[in-house]
Write a structure and sequence with these properties.
There is one protein chain. The chain folds into two domains: about 180 residues, Glycogen Phosphorylase B (Rossmann fold); about 170 residues, Rossmann fold, CATH 3.40.50.2000. The chain contains 15 helices and 13 strands. The protein is globular and about 65 Å long. It is an alpha/beta fold. The protein is about 40% helix and about 15% strand. Helix 9 packs across helix 13. The chain starts with a strand and ends with a helix. The strands form two sheets. The chain has a seven-stranded parallel sheet. A six-stranded parallel sheet has the order 10-9-8-11-12-13, sandwiched between helices. Strand 1, helix 1 and strand 2 form a beta-alpha-beta unit.
Length: about 375
């Protein structure tokens, strides 16, 4: 059995973390076992499950700029203490080169950098912006395997350098449309049977653009559409989003569900999935939404290859909320099971994708 070290900032229910956990649950763990490093000491959402699957979790202090040398030494010393890892899989592009360089110094054979977004999360003139760009510039010199969530993400960060796409695969069967679950969760949320329910799953951060989703809801209501909004997730921007909902008079039209381990059940309550993200790679949530039988509306600068079912619609993030509302209003929904089946037959079905990852890890040992 080989052990692969997965590197994250934390092991909460974010898109990249969820994708890795989907693979972890389904790979042959008699052949491949995962361990995890995070840059926080707090218990995270996936920690209990990781440990139940046989994974180990380690913490290394966060990079803070001034601790550049200490951060490097901590990583080198840590990796030298664990010669069992011949492969390190880094999911933090802002620290990718630093961690990969430390792994190279420690003698780790396979250093994988995996990007999960498209675009920069910080302006060039900020410390984080400069630091991120320097890290990306060093990918080719520090890593020997480059992975991406999709074609756009890979081209953005790697340019002309060769890279491999790892599908953001999910356990499709969990998301199969189910009328009983739909009725139960709509009742749980207080949604009437005839309400048009917009749903969004994601961490409450600026890049996810939750405030714009509130504007879309407001537009639909002003057009006499009985719309409601379900927001699943948590994060630093949640309080500001709740405050804005009250300011817009939407507090009784929006359900803040918080973090949920059974996202597949909550998605059943929705009618349309909305994702006006500013920065995103190939979003797992859009794959999950389609597997749930939902049509989706998302930012048009994101990776369009996620439109597996033909029921993903694109709009510019520069457009007014009225345009988004009109698009949502005019969606002609296909049979939910047809949308689900398109995901089941695709590379995004974890039972199709897991074999690829197993073969990849084993082939580079």
């Amino acid at each position: 059995m080989i052990r692969v070290l997965q590197v994250f900032g934390w092991t909460d229910r974010g898109g990249a973390e969820t994708m890795v956990m989907n693979y972890y649950r389904n790979i042959d763990r008699t052949k491949i076992q995962f361990d995890f490093v995070k840059h926080t000491e707090r218990r995270c959402a996936y920690d209990d499950e990781i440990e139940s699957l046989g994974g180990r979790i380690f913490s290394i202090p966060r990079f803070k700029g001034y601790n550049l040398i200490g951060f490097h030494r901590a990583w080198v010393n840590f990796l030298r203490e664990h010669p069992e890892w011949h492969t390190i899989h880094i999911h933090q592009f802002t620290l990718g080169s630093q961690i990969a360089f430390a792994a190279k110094c420690a003698g780790v054979k396979n250093r994988i950098i995996h990007v999960h977004s498209v675009g920069w999360k910080a302006p060039l003139y900020t410390f984080l912006g400069i630091h991120s760009r320097l890290n990306v510039a060093g990918f080719a010199r520090t890593a020997n395997h480059l992975l991406a969530c999709g074609q756009l993400s890979g081209e953005f960060f790697y340019g002309k350098r060769p890279f491999t796409i790892q599908p953001n695969a999910i356990d499709v069967e969990k998301f199969k449309p189910n009328d009983k679950i739909r009725t139960a969760f709509r009742h749980k949320c207080g949604f009437d049977p005839d309400s048009l329910v917009l749903v969004h799953v994601g961490r409450f951060i600026a890049e996810k653009n939750h405030l714009f989703i509130l504007e879309i809801l407001s537009v639909l209501l002003k057009n006499n559409i009985k719309a409601r909004l379900l927001l699943v997730g948590d994060g630093d921007a949640r309080q500001a989003t709740e405050k804005r909902a009250i300011e817009l008079g939407l507090n009784d039209k929006v359900v803040f569900a918080g973090l949920q381990s059974d996202v597949y059940n909550w998605l059943q309550a929705g009618d349309v999935f909305v994702l006006p993200s500013l920065v995103e790679g190939l979003p797992v949530c859009i794959v999950e939404a389609q597997a749930s039988g939902l049509p989706c509306v998302m930012s048009d600068h994101l990776d369009k290859s996620v439109n597996i079912s033909g029921q993903v619609y694109f709009e510019s993030i520069k457009s007014h909320a009225e345009r988004w509302g009109q698009l949502i209003k005019n969606i002609k929904t296909r049979n939910k099971n047809q949308i689900h089946n398109s995901i089941e037959l695709s590379q995004y079905n974890i039972h199709n994708a897991k074999n690829w990852l197993e073969e990849f890890y084993l082939s580079i040992q």
